[in-house]
Amino acid sequence: MTSKMIIALAxxxxxxxxxxVHLAQGxxxxxxxxxxxxxxxxxxxxxxxxxxxxxxxxxTEAKKAFxxxxxxxxLIATAQTQGxxxxxxxxxxxxLFFPSAYAxxxxxxxxxxxxxxxxxxxxxxxxxxxxxxxxxxxxGAVVSKQVLGAPTxxxxxxxxxxxxxxxxxxxxxxxxxxxPIPAEPNAPVTIEFDxxxxxxxxxxxxxxxxxxxxxxxxxxxxKG
Length: 224
Known about the structure:
Layout: H1 3-27, H2 37-56, H3 62-80, E1 120-124, E2 132-136, E3 142-147, E4 156-158, E5 166-170, E6 174-175, E7 179-180, E8 189-197, H4 199-206, E9 215-223
Parallel strand pairs: 1-8, 6-9
Antiparallel strand pairs: 1-4, 2-3, 2-5, 5-7, 8-9
Helix pairs in contact: 1-2, 1-3, 2-3, 2-4
């Protein structure tokens, strides 16, 4: 193996080192966070970029090339966090390579002055025993958190706190988003919850956006 190949391998290995640490941390969790194929495509891009950086700087020592490769993901991660502090629970930070956009479920916003809270029921299509439902008022302050618990055959009835205008499902496996509470106070509304795999999210995780989840939430509000 030539010295140039050794330098390229060292720099590429340095480029994927942070992703390897993140991957290992995901596997040791109680519920392992297993990425999809596109995650490893992002890691492969980091490997190639690390090798290119070492070539650009004409590095001749493998040890220096390794640390040079490590610096690239750190630089990109720093750029991704410049968009500000994420909402609570955390949403994805703005990515360096791809714009981030999370659509809210379409529903008329409930006025904060409504005295009678609507009747909400939670109906997951997938396991959501670690999920919580969060409510905020019109100013964005969290007014209530409720554990949804293990799924049941019948939808779970949710007590909506007075003054709440939006809710969000805090699910450790998906990206969080806020959803407006329907305006009709007396109409029962069922929250149908599911997860949708996103190859783009997986790729962005592989490119260092570790706060992003591979799955997006699929929330539908059905009346009656």
